[in-house]
Amino acid sequence: MNKITPCLWFDTQAEDAAQFYTSVFPDSQILEVSRYGDAGPGPAGQAMTVSFELANSRYVALNGGPVFTFNEAISFQVDCASQEEVDYFWNTLSDGGEEGQCGWLKDRFGVSWQVIPSALPTLLADPDPGRATRAMQAMLGMRKLDIAEMQQAADAPQPAG
């Protein structure tokens, strides 16, 4: 069990969100669903909380009503080893949601994600500041991150000067 478990506040979509997320990520499952009873405050039978694991990390989704909504102040980073992984997570998580800049997106539930290739931190930390700058400039012009395009930008020869 996690010492710290993120709790995601949904209006009424906690169970749908947990089912969606566990279908997207390997090594994921719904662990437990507790439902509102006749005492409320939600409709009897509606999920109150849904405990689930994503890639072996535990989360709780809560149907707490429309009082709070998600914003980019909290996001989840998805570390991707390949462009195929970037494409899969980007396309799946953004379906019905909203694409942002630089690998950021909001899913159909309003939760923010960063779909980041493992190569990005290496490119941005390149000991050659010119390479790192060119990779950063390429990234800033993208929505879904393209590893080959960032690498090509980093490797681009610079005019003598």
UniProtKB/TrEMBL annotation:
Q: Which residues cross the membrane?
A: none
Matching entries from Pfam families are given as: 3-dmu-9_3-mt
Biological process (GO), any one: methylation
Superkingdom of the source species: Bacteria
The record places domain PhnB-like at 3-116
Molecular function terms, GO-annotated: methyltransferase activity
Has keyword Transferase?
yes
For whether the record's keyword set contains Glycosyltransferase, the answer is: no
What does the UniProt keyword field contain? Methyltransferase, Transferase, Ubiquinone
Q: Which PANTHER family match?
A: PHNB-LIKE DOMAIN-CONTAINING PROTEIN (PTHR33990:SF2), PROTEIN YJDN-RELATED (PTHR33990)
What is the protein name for this chain? 3-demethylubiquinone-9 3-methyltransferase
